[in-house]
């Protein structure tokens, strides 16, 4: 029997009309057995997401300040009323508000959007409601407990004919609520798919699928029909936001594909994310382009550094001991550059530079801010001649200076650094070149 796990994002469940679309999608295919909902998202451009309202409510009430909690309650009441549901959330509202006053924690606050939406959706579908806190577990250090989760969840759901499991959160060993990072409902969907050995993990959102580039920069970018887990990971990390980057890991080892679909356009096939590339991929083809601003480059110069055993390790230790992770490490014989998040570095700048000086006695250290990174990703780039030439010619013809180049040994991507002010110009130039 084929089993689909279907995760619906906040825009897909923002109001009663969206709930109706979701029900039509689920009832249209009996394989959609396990449903993972997000909290209600924006209903219109200037609307506020329920999760953001919950954060605001908690920040106020936990400090003894007033907050009009009815604003949150009415979002759910309107859905209940318009759908004619019989479920009563009044006791839940009172309990949540009291927990906020008692300082139950921001993770608890954030999770209640998914929890309440899950209760409504399970009632509307006639499915069983399974609280994520009963089947998703974290270890004492806050890391996800895979072994316990897959064991308990698999056993809990193995005979279910239809269940709604709220996304985004789980439970700590002391029974307090712990959330994944923002957008973590995607992760929950993949976890459920892994636990029940699903045939497919669907991720329903408000776009037709993954696009080759950011539509805020590129006009009408081409959609991606098929993308591999590795390619998606690269693009997501560099700013493509259709799917949470960590949602890949639970399903990757099990070989379960993910299908990105549009709740508002269910006839579109969307983007299929698969473990391995198709045999008919085009050599040299680019799958997608993504990038983001906000990086700093720390350049360390020292003659004969390549002959100093452990030099690179000591450089990285200066960042590690100060809690700053690196992004890339372009290097030469007598120079080494460390690319880091600008804000994270700036907060520890003086300490890191002092540690570098003490640990390595460099000739010079320079810091350059305002760096943007662009990743050109494609499985078809492997061993294809001329791909890099096409990319760098496009950047040159756009009048942009390349400040950094990095390519992984897998040849899956090429990353270039440019001034932040040239970011959009470089993106447009590269996209135009790879599409010709």
Order of helices and strands: EHEHHHHEHEEEHEEHHEEEHEEHHEHEEH
Overall mean pLDDT score?
92
Q: What Rg do the Cα atoms give? A: 24 Å
Bin the strand percentage: 15-25%
Query: What separation lies between the terminal Cα atoms?
Result: 44 Å
Number of strands: 16
Query: How many helical stretches?
Result: 14
Structure class = alpha/beta
Please provide a written account of the structure.
36% of the residues lie in helices and 20% in strands. The protein contains 14 helices and 16 strands. The protein has helices at residues 16-27, 50-61, 70-83, 90-101, 106-125, 146-157, 185-195, 229-237, 248-252, 311-320, 342-347, 349-360, 387-397, 423-435; strands spanning 4-8, 32-37, 128-129, 163-164, 169-171, 177-179, 200-205, 226-228, 258-262, 271-274, 288-301, 326-328, 335-341, 364-377, 404-407, 413-419. An 8-stranded mixed sheet has the order 3-4-2-1-7-9-10-8, sandwiched between helices. A 6-stranded antiparallel sheet has the order 12-13-11-14-16-15. α1 (16-27) links the parallel β1 and β2. α3 packs parallel to α5, α6 (146-157) packs across α7 (185-195) and α10 packs antiparallel against α12 (349-360). The longest helix has 20 residues, at 106-125.
